[in-house]
Design brief:
With 107 residues, the chain is α+β, with helices and mostly antiparallel strands. It has one domain: Dimeric alpha+beta barrel (Alpha-Beta Plaits, 2-Layer Sandwich), CATH 3.30.70. 27% of the residues lie in helices and 26% in strands. The chain is built from two helices and four strands. It has a four-stranded antiparallel sheet. It starts with a strand and ends in a 24-residue tail after the last strand.
């Protein structure tokens, strides 16, 4: 299952610079591990703010939450998760894949 995840990071000013630097380095390493495992598929930064959007894969929401919770900066994050499903008009769909009508209510 794929999820579109928005993460806003808000580290309090009281966190020492050395600790923040350590957390950022650890975050980068953990993100690389999650990408190599096929869990973090894509990642985009939002210009001008410490926010990102990511395309994540997990077996279900509980598994995704476990992966997100493994991020070193997690305690400073506000996370919004949007479960995704295929769209019948997705331009990336294969031309020979049969079209299934969708009433838009999800299933």
């Amino acid at each position: 299952m794929e999820f579109l995840v928005n993460i806003v990071i808000d580290v309090p000013a009281q966190v020492p610079r050395t600790e923040l630097k350590r957390l950022i380095q650890a975050e980068s390493m953990r993100a690389r591990e999650l990408a190599e495992a096929g869990i973090l598929l894509r990642l985009w930064r939002t210009a001008g703010v410490w926010t990102n959007w990511g395309l994540w894969a997990a077996s279900d929401r509980a598994a995704l939450d476990k992966h997100l919770g493994s991020l070193p900066l997690y305690s400073y994050m506000r996370v919004t998760v949007h479960p995704l499903r295929d769209h019948p008009n997705d331009p990336q769909r294969s031309r020979d894949e049969p079209h299934k009508p969708d009433d838009g209510r999800g299933a």
